[in-house]
Design a protein that fits this description.
With about 290 residues, the protein is α/β, with parallel strands linked by helices. It contains 14 helices and eight strands. It has a single domain, classed as Alpha-Beta Barrel (TIM Barrel). The longest helix is centred in the last third of the chain and has 16 residues. Helix content is about 40%, strand content about 15%. The structure holds zinc ion. The site of zinc ion (ZN) has 3 residues, from strand 1. Zinc ion binds next to strand 1.
Length: about 290
């Protein structure tokens, strides 16, 4: 079966005009300058064709930051519809602002929509993951057997702008998610972007809690910190996942950069396929 061969890209944004000009809007320029490349608008069909050609399946992420940013989100129904239409290429993670009034009700729609997990972004959604206010929300996510991907660490949005355009990166410190990870041990939680510059917190959490995963999206492979690469090859070999941060990164170019790290066959297999499968609750590939 071809599906067994697919590499999983754990961090894919919807590269349509609705997300780039709509949701990112006033943050787009800061992101392009930070990554030093333009963000190209693509159709959903083009995205699916790119992933098919790359032999990859992407975790497609929703966006819901209207309360905090005043910008339109991406409806969870749209993410679900894309993943139904291009099921071989994308698996859907909807997004819900944990502080919006109907947050739990929106989460409860996920199983019927066929969404596998939840994406949150404490910096853009302006919430503290360790606060009492959001614990009932994550309790609902655990009850619904959702997996969670959280943005962690530095943000390109607002970078090199006065006040970071009002965005707080301290809310995305990995350790602020430790309370949720401890409270819901059955719920797999992915800390995106290795949580840099706080990767030491990310490493400690993943070593301490087996339900914590890490993705390497948004960082050039050659810039991954040495202590992190040591853990990726060692004690965290079953918990670190490949991810690009498409469309800011090209997934194939990123994969080639990762391959240049010479991680060895077993670690590479875990990084690019099996660890994300475990995170998603799909059986690992049989060798
Ligand atoms: Zn991202």
């Amino acid at each position: 079966m071809a599906e067994r061969q697919l590499i999983i890209d754990s961090h894919v944004h919807l590269a349509t005009e609705a997300w780039i000009d709509g949701s990112l809007g006033p943050y787009r320029a800061s992101v392009e300058e930070y990554f030093r490349r333009p963000i190209l608008i693509r159709s959903v069909e083009t995205m699916a064709a790119e992933y098919e050609a790359a032999g990859m399946r992407g975790i497609l992420l929703g966006w819901d930051a209207e309360r905090s940013s005043g910008r339109p989100g991406i409806p969870n129904d749209l993410i679900a519809a894309i993943c139904r239409r291009f099921g071989d290429q994308f698996v859907g993670f909807g997004s819900v602002d944990p502080l919006r009034p109907n947050a739990v009700a929106e989460l409860e729609r996920f199983p019927d929509l066929g969404l596998t997990g939840l994406k949150v972004h404490p910096t853009v959604q302006a919430f503290d993951p360790s606060s009492d206010d959001v614990q009932p929300f994550f309790e609902a996510a655990a009850r619904l057997h959702l997996r969670v991907i959280t943005h962690a660490g530095m943000s390109a949005l607002g970078a090199a702008r006065p006040g970071g355009q009002g965005l707080r990166i301290d809310l995305a410190r990995p350790a602020l998610f430790d309370r949720v990870a401890a409270q819901f041990p059955e719920m797999p939680i992915m800390l995106a972007h290795i949580g840099a510059p706080w990767e030491a917190e990310t490493i400690a959490m993943a070593l301490h809690k087996s339900n914590v995963y890490v993705d390497i999206s948004g960082w050039k492979a050659k810039y991954l910190p040495v202590p992190f690469v040591r853990e990726l090859k060692g004690r965290l070999r079953a918990q670190v996942c490949f991810g690009s941060d498409y469309p800011m990164f090209d997934p194939l170019e990123h994969l080639n950069d990762v391959r240049a790290l010479d991680l060895g066959a077993e670690v590479s297999e875990g990084l690019t396929r099996n660890n994300a499968r475990r995170f998603l609750g799909i059986a690992p590939t049989v060798q």
